[in-house]
Amino acid sequence: MPRARIAMRKVKEVLRLRYDLRLSYSQIRRSCGVSNGTLNGLLNRAAKLGLTSWEQVRDLSEDALEKTLFRRADDGQWLEQRPLPDWAEVERELRRHKHLTLKLVWGEHLQANPGGYGFSQFCALFRRWRRSQGRGVTMRQEHRPGEALQVDYAGDTVVVMDGGQAREAQIFVACLPFSGLIYAEATWTQQVGDWLGAHVRALGYLGGVPGALVPDNLKSGVSKASFFDPVLNPSYYELARHYGTAILPTRVRKPKDKAAVESAVLQVERWILAPLRHRRFFTLAELNAALVPLREALNNRPLAPPRTGTRRAVFEADERPCLRPLPADPHTIGQWELGRAVGADHHVIVDGHYYSVPSGLAHGRVDVFATATLVSLFQHGARVASHPRSPVKGGHSTALEHLPPGHRAVASRTPERMRAEAAAIGVATATYVDRLRAARRHVERGWGSGAAVCRGAAAGDAAACPARGGRPRSRRARQRARRALLPLRPPCCTRPSRSCTRSSWRRWRTGCWRRCGSPTSTRSPSRSAWRSWSISSTRRPRTPRSGCG
Fold first, then answer.
1. Of 14, 37, 117, 351, which is least surrounded by CB within 10 A?
2. Rounded to whole angstroms, how far apart are CA atoms 246 and 212?
């Protein structure tokens, strides 16, 4: 390995002592601390180059003196005049291709320039150029009390035997840069719910709110990373707005932007996770309980010199008074989804379940805020609907007030409602409607007749409601009464088609009367006799003989 060259400052001092002060060699050796061989070599090299007086050396800078004394003997060229690559282009290539190495670049440069430098000198010149451009220089950051809270997840995980299966728990770490106070807890995932819950518990541990939150660019915090205008996750933004703080994401792949929490992650892995390496955990709560004493011991450890005290002592003395108070209401952890499409049925799908919004918002877009128990839908910042969260996949949660009037009438058409309306009119009407429903094989078939009876009774038309008795006053009322009475025929009788003549219709009614238990008669029963048979609640038709209908 070549010997390091003597500093130009010492070379210039040797020349000054010899040429200006006229000191002996032994005096110069004792003053500058150089060997006899080094001293003789310097003075001989200066004499060969014509540097024999102090006036020639006094005004030369150290760089100029180095170029003058240490030029090559073969061709007279200086060290810096050998062919050099474009260092800026070399740096761009190294950043662009992750598998490219400096040795490969040097080999390509040496093939194009056979008289170039060796690999060690090539690397030294590249490092010198980087330093001249400000590369590899660390900026000293000044942190003020309560200014920011830096958050991150540790790279190491802890295995938890959850229900007999091994799961890896993530370690959330938060750090206040001024005091260095560290908060750590375990979560199952790095998803939005666990991310927000860890923030809420971290702020509760601090007992106050810092001026800003400084995360990296994970998807739970930043939807789209950008140096100029990053797009924050809506749920994370709502948390910051609830606590009255700001979110300042770091640059992409710039961990030094949050150096405090990066150092805190190392401390957590060293002083919290490493001591737990021999323990086995079966629940996440058990793991978090084991983290608490180790976390407090870490915060109470003495700080490294030149700082004095502990993280906890500095926090309590200087940083806690600078934190803003926590809000009175705790933050509700939920997930926002912006611009969800509303279908033609004015329903929005959330986690496989359909939730209704007012019908006027069909084919539009709404914002969804879903918590563990509630789903709220917003448009232009105003809440338009709220539903209890349902775990049923493919199910529907529909509010009647969201339906248009026609759909609302159809949705409210239930047997219970028809029975209640009939009971509100009278006992006879309710009994008649019950018999109408019982005579139909399907509930929808009995709805029309029952609704006609109740509507006519409510309007005061006795003919429309035979249960109230009375003579029809119009042809339309008689037809309505006939339609209401005919469904009460015994199930065995087949009603003639509408194309039949009036005589066929009369013969069918007369025969049905005979076969089903009416008094023997060869003529059609009178209207009063038919009505008395129809509304009788005690008489049951006899079983018809074979061949009836």
1. 37
2. 5
pLDDT of residue 328: 92
In angstroms, how far apart are the furthest CA atoms of the chain? 161
Task: Specify burial of residue 289 (Cβ count, 10 A radius: 0-12, 13-18, 19+).
Answer: exposed
Q: Domain map of the chain by residue range?
A: 8-80, 82-132, 149-322, 335-410, 416-488, 498-549
Tens of pLDDT, residues 503-546: 655 655 555 544 444 443 444 445 554 455 444 433 444 444 44
**472 preceded by a cis bond (ω within 30 of 0):** no
3-state secondary structure at position 348: strand
Helix (H) or strand (E) holding 58: helix 54-58
Query: What does DSSP assign to residue 317?
Result: I
Report long-range pairs for 160-165 (Cβ below 8 Å, ≥24 apart): 160/186, 160/281, 160/282, 160/283, 160/284, 160/286, 160/287, 161/280, 161/281, 161/282, 162/282, 162/283, 162/284
**493 in Cβ contact with 508 (< 8 Å):** yes
d(CA 100, CA 104): 7
Sequential DSSP letters for 207-266: TSB-SEEE----TTTEEE--SSS-EE-HHHHHHHHHHT-EE-PPPTT-GGGGHHHHHHHH
Q: Is 267 helix (H, G, I), strand (E, B) or coil?
A: helix
The yes or no reply on domain 149-322 and CATH 3.30.420.10 is: yes
Sign of CA dihedral 372, 374, 375, 381: negative
What residues contact 505, with CB distance under 8 A and at least 6 apart? 496
Q: Is the pTM value of this prediction over 0.85?
A: no
pLDDT tens, 456-510? 666 654 444 544 444 444 555 455 555 544 444 444 444 554 555 556 556 555 5
Count of Cβ atoms closer than 10 Å to residue 280 Cβ: 9
293-350 pLDDT, tens digit per residue, is 999 999 999 999 989 999 999 999 999 999 999 999 989 999 999 999 999 999 999 9
E strand residue ranges, 158-206? 158-162, 165-175, 182-187
